[in-house]
Design goal:
Blueprint: H1 14-28, H2 30-60, H3 70-90, H4 115-144
Helix pairs in contact: 2-3, 2-4, 3-4
Length: 147
């Protein structure tokens, strides 16, 4: 091919433009989705210990007591740590990103975080906290069977 000839191009179609826009909107909204998930997880984490105590009271009557053994401390310890991790996920954190840089150096040699890196890292940070919180919460539910 001759270097003097321009490469033929055509404008991006409307459907392709809409698909690209929706892709970038979805990518940018990942952190918001993690916030919504953390809010729902927080609701469940606050409800389950209360339900546990209510069911214990209903099934045992006025003599409802729990033995405070290792399983008791493990259950409520897991629930407490899960609740704290969820709260940390919901508390805003400051990130330093340069809005003039789209994506930082992939080799990690630069301290500058670009816009794409900002959205990726905030979602990744929240996802890790939510996974840890949900795992601890389910571990607490599992441990509650042995009290």
């Amino acid at each position: 091919m001759n270097d003097d000839q321009p490469i033929p191009t055509r404008p991006v179609s409307d459907s392709t433009r809409v698909l690209r826009q929706k892709f970038y909107e979805q990518f940018a909204a990942q952190s918001d989705q993690m916030d919504k998930l953390a809010g729902q997880l927080l609701t469940v984490q606050l409800a389950i210990p209360g339900l546990y105590a209510a069911v214990l009271k209903l099934t045992q009557g006025p003599n409802a007591t729990i033995t405070t053994n290792g399983w008791f401390y493990l259950t409520f310890g897991c629930w407490l740590i899960a609740l704290l991790l969820t709260m940390i996920c919901l508390i805003p954190r400051s990130w330093s990103a340069d809005p003039t840089v789209i994506e930082g150096d992939p080799a990690g040699r630069s301290q500058t975080m670009g816009v794409v890196d900002f959205f990726r890292q905030t979602a990744q940070y929240k996802r890790r906290l939510i996974i840890a919180a949900a795992s601890l919460f389910w571990a607490g539910i599992f441990c509650s069977f042995f009290i």
